[in-house]
Amino acid sequence: MEDLKLNIKLWLKANRHDYAWLAERCYVTETTVRNWMAKKPIPRAKAHIIRELINQSPVTMPSATPIDVTLQTQVMIRIDKNVTKRLEDKAFTQGLTLEEFLQRTLANLSAE
Predict the structure, then answer these.
(1) What is the pTM of this model?
(2) Which domain holds residue 50?
């Protein structure tokens, strides 16, 4: 559970979200989220919601700032909306989702 809490904190920071934002999506109060993160266990149903939010997080990166990559069990990259659209279009032409396209591209790069 502590790994999940650490992942949540890192993910929120990487995506510039706060506990209030997460609370809205979990249908609880910000105080409840703060209690989870400090001492109380996250209920199984709410942990599932949070994992889904993390998995569905758009891969975005502001073009004006340096790339900030957090390595963990996942890599989250913030990309400008216009770049995201171009990547989605490129993925679509190959019959892939954006996630599949990025995974394939990164796998090809790491194989070089």
Answers:
(1) 0.51
(2) 2-56
